[in-house]
Design a protein that fits this description.
The protein has helices spanning about 25-40, 90-105, 125-130, 185-200, 210-215, 240-245, and strands spanning about 5, 45-50, 55-60, 70, 75-85, 110-115, 135-140, 145-150, 160, 175, 200-205, 225, 230-235. It is an alpha+beta fold and about 250 residues long. The longest helix has 15 residues, at about 25-40.
Amino acid sequence: MNEYINLTLENIEKEHICCAIGDPKHQDGVDSKKEWIKNKLKDGHVFRKLDARGKIFIEYEPLETSWVPISGDNYEYIYCLWVAGSFKGKGIGKELLEYAINDSKEKGKNGICTLASKKKKPFLGEKKFFEHYGFKVVDSIGDYELMALQFQNSETPRFNDNARTMKIDDKDFTIYYSNECPYVEYEVKELSDYAKEKNIKLNFIKIDSLEKAKNAPCIFNNWANFYKGEFISNTILNANALEKLLK
């Protein structure tokens, strides 16, 4: 039987958070992510992981307090469901998702939702996997889709109007980010150093509050890239990836 752990204020310091395991360059990001989780636990944030050394977890919380530009009535929002490496194909993803679904029902929620895409994109859930459990597309912006599983008749979640613009006024390369992901801190520093070295104008806008997240001008889960005022991707970039994009 698989054993799982839910992070709490009592155990979070001694437990790993799955991503960036054992990579010293991401330690600052891991520390920032843990602080972010600590602050979100009071909102009902759940981080549940397999009791093993690997990237196997689900992370969700009430939609009303989730850091995404999505609104709805009494839904849970899944930030991330990840089963990597040798743990794939063992039913772990099924167990994690079913836990979240049952937990949401026990809390009296109207449903549970998550962000996916028509074509596979990094850091987003697999659409077909969620469809298997009855999730349906309830809203979309371009290739990005909001999927929801309803437990009872209710209004389905929707992207906020501000997210539909997918544009900003600034024409310089601009990155929106938050500490939801432990990889972010290192990449912000790497990109900042690269931009300084190459004399490139690069703007960073940190999403560090619920208000900023709900009012983001695009699809947002933890990172968003804009160039010449247009949204181009949700891919977390390193220096090499940025150089390719600019070329």
